[in-house]
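Fold sample X.
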Amino acid sequence: MENFPKRFNLKGATVTNMRELGGYQREDKKVTKYKEFLRSSTMADLTEEHCDYLISYGLKTVIDLRSDYEIARDPSSFADYVGVSYKNIPLLCEKHPQISENITLGELYIAMFEERHNFAEVFAFMAENAEGIILFNCVAGKDRTGVVATLLLMLAGIDKVDILVDYEISSTYNKKIAEEYYSNKFKYLEDEELIKGEISKWQHIMHARPEYIEKFYDAVIKFGGVEEYLRSCGISNKIIEIIKNKVI
């Protein structure tokens, strides 16, 4: 029996939140398929050995949901890698609110729900590259990645509680790297208490609290369900069926 990793532990790489979408069970006992979709944080420092391992696992396609600025700062290790189809499809646009200490992630996700920016392109590219594993990522593998993962798991008919947990676990995997990032960001203050104070203001950004993604989930349900919502994004029934058959 083949063993499937739930989280990929790539020694020496800073990617901490690369995970399988396989293994979630519906009430009818059907389970989301392994080796179809991976979700991940930034993959900017993968070695050739890391990349070849992922390709040997079955990786064929990478969808990078980050902005042009983020990619210029930390180019993906798969951007020009032979054997992998890579595409950048930014999931945020100028109409989305900028993350700040006063904007919650739940508010950002509702803005993404309303704007529907590039969801159609993401799903179309998935359908065009349905053979082999599709990996989608953003920076932390939590927000943009979390929204796409939520849509896929909803399409598969997975229980709400499992979808919230799949999102929430990013907090644990990202905890150390998030703390290091914000500590470095505010180290100019040169006072430990001031640094802690500034970091505390950004706790809502660092954590993947289930109530954040629940806002997005509930909005989709209220709209009429995930398939109705995807159609409103300009995604055809054919593409929806291809993705649904791929994920479960």
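Fold sample Y, listed below.
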Amino acid sequence: MAKTAAKPTNGVKKTNAGATKKKASETASQAASGVKGAPAAGPLFRPLGQYIKDLSFECPRAPMMTPENDRNMDLNVGVQAVELSAERGLYEVALAIRAEAKDAAKTTVFMAELAFAGVFELQNIPSDHIDQVLHVEGASLLFPFARKIIMQTLADSGFRPPLLDPINFGALYVQSKNASNNS
């Protein structure tokens, strides 16, 4: 067995980094839970999970499909946020995506519908900002995954998937708020 010489510490006391991390996370969770004497924690927006709620694909004219350059696709995206547990700060954000392609004769070539959702934990966020955080930040985090599911479904169905551009959910949120204020 080889012996190693002890290295001098130069007066620096070694600490257990794992214990320090544990203390910091305990302090943050105490603050989030409202324990007296705990320092106030900053805002928390954390995704806890994501999942497909519903996926549907229809190709009504499968044996008689038209060439790919002979179709136009419409993409509709909706965002919905639901409170799951107020005391735990849990919310569900669901994207509803519908992609429909029609040929030159306006006949449906395919239709794909996806309901893709995620559960998010929010702590220490002012109540007047929760709706915006969920509809903008939550939707922005979910969309790349939902887009991939739609594109993969189209590819698996024999179609060349179109490029689905990113969506500015901040602009959509502002537009939606302006429309509801004008109503």
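Sample Y note: The domain at 42-182 is CATH 3.10.420.10 (Bacterial Protein-export protein SecB).
Also: Strands lie at 44-58, 71-85, 90-103, 108-123.
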